[in-house]
Amino acid sequence: MSNRTFTVMVFAIAIAIIMASRFIPNEYFFQAAYTVLQFVVLATAWNILGGYTGYVNFGTAAFFAVGAYSTVFLYNAFQAPLVVMILAGTLVAGLLGLGVGYLTLRLRGVYFAIATLALAVVLYTFVINWDYVGGARGAYLLQPREVPFGFARYTHLLYSAMVLMTAAALAVARAIETSTLGRGLAAIRDDELAAESAGVPTLRLKLFSATVSGALMGMAGTTFPYYLSYIEPSSAFSLSYAVNSIAMPLIGGMMSWLGPLIGAILLGSIQQLVQVTVSSAWNLLIVGVMLVLFVTLAPNGIMGWVDAWRKRKDR
Amino acid sequence: MELSTALVLNAIIAGLLLGGLYAAMSVGISISFGMLDVVNIAHPAFIILGSYIAYIVNDRLGFDPILVSVVLSPLFFALGMALYRIYYLCFEKRGQESLRGLAFFFGILFITEVALVLIFGVDYRLVQTAYGQTTWRLGAVDFPLRLVVPFLVSVTMVVSVQLFLTHTFFGRAVLAVAQDQLALRLMGVNPVRVKELAFALSIATAGVAGAFLIVIQPVQPSIGREFIGLAFAVCVLGGMGSIWGTLLGAFVLGLAESFTSTFFGPSWAPAVSFGLLLATLAFKPSGLLGR
Amino acid sequence: MSDLLLEVSGVTKRFGGFTALEDVDLVVRPGERIGLIGPNGSGKSTLVNCICGALHNEAGSIRFMGEDIGRQPTHRRIRLGLARSFQIPKPFASMSVLDNLRVPLLYAARRHEKIAKSQITDEAMHILQQVGLGDKAQAMSRGLTQVDMRKLELARAMAAKPRLLISDEAMAGLSPAEVDDILALLQGLKQQGVAVIMIEHVMRAVMKFSERVAVLVAGRKIAEGDPQAIAGNPDVVKAYLGE
C-alpha cells in the first residue's frame, strides 16, 4: 500500500471513529480513550528515534511537558486558539528534538540515553522556577465555554483532536519506515560507521529523526493542560511517560509502526483497567514487570511472535 | 553583593560533606558502568532499597543504620550476583545489551520503586541515630555529625574499594575485564565470573550508600530517580572507571550544589548536577581524570 | 585537469603522542590495482580511515578526481565514488543480505549513476550473484558464516558503484580456493574501470593481483614499485623479517 493511500485511510478511520464516538453516552470512555491514544502517539514518536534509529530516549517526559507548557504559555499570553497551541507546541518540541539530535554527534548509546534523562530534570527544574507558567504550584486553565464543531463538551473536542493526532503520528511513522529514509535510519541503528560508509548522511538523518520524534511527543502534550484544566510540573514531567513510551514499543515490537500501536493499546488498556479496579499505584508496577518480562523473554515483542509465526506458515 | 566569609566557608564544608555521600552513591556505578560496561541505571533504586532496609531495622530494633547496612551488605552482594546472572544470560550473551539492557534496568528501577511505594507509601521516612542531633562548631563553621559520620565512613569505603581493586588479584582482574577479556581467559580466569562478583560489589556499595542517605535526609521511594543523573554525572565528570576520579567528581558536584543552594536557593540544586552532566558529556566526555 | 583518481600527499596522522602516519604519499590512476602492505600496526587501516573520512589527518591533502575531499564527511566521499570494505565485517545485522546492498545502492550509487528505484533489487541481486551470495539474498545477514560475511562486506562496497574500491583485508582467514574467488572478483572490477587498493596479509594474493605495491612501515611509506621489485627490496625484506 502506498503511503498516500495509507495516510488517507488512517485519517478516514480517524474521522469515522470521531463520528461514531458521538453516540457513546459514557463519559469515562472519552477519558480512557484519550489517555490510551496519548500513549499511542508517545510510543509511536519514541519508536522513530528509539526503534528505527537506535537511540534510546529517556526524556519523553521533557518533550511532552514542553508541548504542554507551551500551551500554558500561549494561554497566559494570548488565550490563543487550540489549533495554534497544538502547532506551536509541536514546533517547540521539534526544536528541542533538533537540539537533542545534535547530542548524537558526540554521544553514542548509553551516554545519549543518560543525557536525555538529564535534560528532563534540567527542564523540570526550570519550569518549577518559572512563575509565569505556574512554577511548582501549577497552573489552572479554563476550558473555553464555547465548544466548536457541535461537540457536547470541550473534552470531546480534545479527544477528537487526540484521535487526529494519533492518525498523524501513525502516518508519519509509516511513511518514514517504508521510505529510503527508513532504510537509512535502520542502517544507522545497525552500524553507524558502516552506514556512513555506504553513503548515508548519518548526522542529517539523525537530526531529522530526533526532530520528528520530539515534535510528535510535544504534540501529544499540547492538549494535556486543557484536558485536566490544571497542570503541575510533577505530573507533566512524570517519569511514567518515559517508562511507558519505552515499554510500549518494546512490548509491541520496534521494527514497524504496528508494534508501538499494539503495545500502547495493550499496555494502555491494562493500565486503565487496573486504575479503575485496583489503584493507580499498581499501574507502574505492571508496566515495569511487563517491560522486564518482555525484554528478557520476548526481545522482539508481540510483532516478533507474529513474524515468527508467519515464517513458520510459509514453510 | 557582599559575601560573608562564614557563608562561603559553610557552603564549602557542606559541599565537601555532601560530596562524601555522592562518592558512596557513585562508586558502584563507576564499577558497573565504568569498568564492566553494564549500564545499571537501576543503581539508585538499590540505594533507596538500602535506605528502607536500614530504616526498618532502625525503626524496629533501634540499631544504627550505617552499622546495619554494613552487616547486611552480603544480602545486597547476593542480589547483585543474581541480577548480573539474569543480565548476562538475557542480554550480554545474546549481544543485545545496549538498547534492551538499558530498558531492562529501567524496568527494574520502576519495579523497585513502585514496590516500595506499595509497601511503605509515599511518606518520607527517617531514622534515629545517636549523633543525629549533634553539631560541632569550629568558629563560624558548622559540622553536623549526621553529615560528618557518613562522610567518614563513605570515604573509607571508597578508598578501600580503590585499594582492593589495585592491590588484589581479583581487583586487577576486574580492571582487566574492561581492557582485555582474552588475556584473562588465558590466565585461567573466567571474565563472566569476575564481572558477576564485581557487579555484586557495586550493588553492595549501593546498599551502604542508602544508609548514608537516610541518615542525612528523609527518604521517599521516588527520590531515587533524582540520583540517576547525579551518580552518572559524578562518574562521567570524574572520568569513566576511575575511582579517584569518582571521589573528585563527587566533591566537585557536592560543592557546586552546595553553592547553588546557598546563593540561588535549593530548588535550583538538581539543575546543577544534570547541567554539569550535560556540559561534561557535550564538551569533555572523557571527564576530569579520564583515560 | 589531472588524470589521477586519488592523490594522497604528505598525510600525517597522530594519536596523542603517537604518530600513526607520517608524510605519506600515494597516487592511484583510474582502473589501477594497488597493493598496500605492511606489518601489523604500520598504519594501513589508519590511511584507509583518513582517505574515507572516518579519521581526519592533521597535515597533508587528499584529492579525489581533482577535488580536495580532506574536509568532507565520509558519506560525501562515498557518493563521489569511493568505497571501502571493513577489516572486521560490519553488516547491517537487522537486514537481509539483499537489503544490506540496498543501502549503498539507494544512498551512494544513485548519486552518480542513473539507477531507477525499480532497478535497485535487480542491481543488488546482480552483485550478489557476482560474489556468490545469490542464493542467500533473503537470509538474515547476522546468521552468515565468516566467509559469507566477508563476501557481503565486499558486495556492499561494490554496490556503492565506486570508481575506487578499498578492500581492507578481505581475505584474512579464507581458504586458498576462497582467496582465488575473491581475487577473481576484484580483478573483474578492472573491466568495469574500477580502481582497487588492496590491503592484505596474504602475500601471494597481493603479488598476483597488484600492478603496483606500496609498503608502509611504522607510518612511513618505505617503498613503492612493481611487485617483483618490492619482493626483492632489501628494506622491505628487513621490515618483514626483522633484523
Describe this structure in words.
The complex is a heterotrimer of chains A (315), B (291) and C (243). Chain A contains 15 helices and two strands. By secondary structure, chain A is mainly alpha-helical. In chain A, strands 1-2 form a two-stranded antiparallel ribbon. By secondary structure, chain B is an all-alpha fold. Chain B has a two-stranded antiparallel sheet with strand order 1-2. The model of chain B has no long low-confidence stretch (mean pLDDT 84). The model of chain C has no long low-confidence stretch (mean pLDDT 85). Chain C has 243 residues and is of the alpha/beta class. Chain C folds into two domains: 1-81 and 162-243, 3-Layer(aba) Sandwich (Rossmann fold), CATH 3.40.50; 93-161, no CATH class. Chain C is globular and about 50 Å long. In chain C, 47% of the residues are buried. Chain C has helices at residues 44-52, 74-80, 97-112, 120-131, 146-159, 176-191, 203-209, 227-232, 234-241; strands at 6-15, 18-28, 33-37, 59-64, 67-68, 82-85, 164-168, 195-199, 212-217, 220-225.
- Report the β-strand fraction of chain A as a percent range: under 5%
* Alpha-carbon Rg of chain B, integer: 19 Å
Total count of strands of chain B:
2
What is the multimeric organization of the chains shown? heterotrimer
Distance between the termini of chain A: 25 Å
Q: Greatest chain-chain interface? A: A-B, 43 and 42 residues
Which geometry of chain A do the CA atoms define? globular
Tell me the domain tally of chain B: 1
**Biggest sheet architecture of chain A:** 2 strands, antiparallel
The major sheet of chain B is characterized as: 2 strands, antiparallel
The CATH topology assignment of chain B is ABC transporter involved in vitamin B12 uptake, BtuC
Mind telling me which CATH architecture of chain B this is?
Orthogonal Bundle
Brief overview:
With 315 residues, chain A is mainly alpha-helical.
Features:
heterotrimer; A: 315 residues; mainly alpha; 15 helices; 77% helix; 1% strand; globular; B: 291 residues; ABC transporter involved in vitamin B12 uptake, BtuC; two-stranded antiparallel ribbon; 12 helices; 75% helix
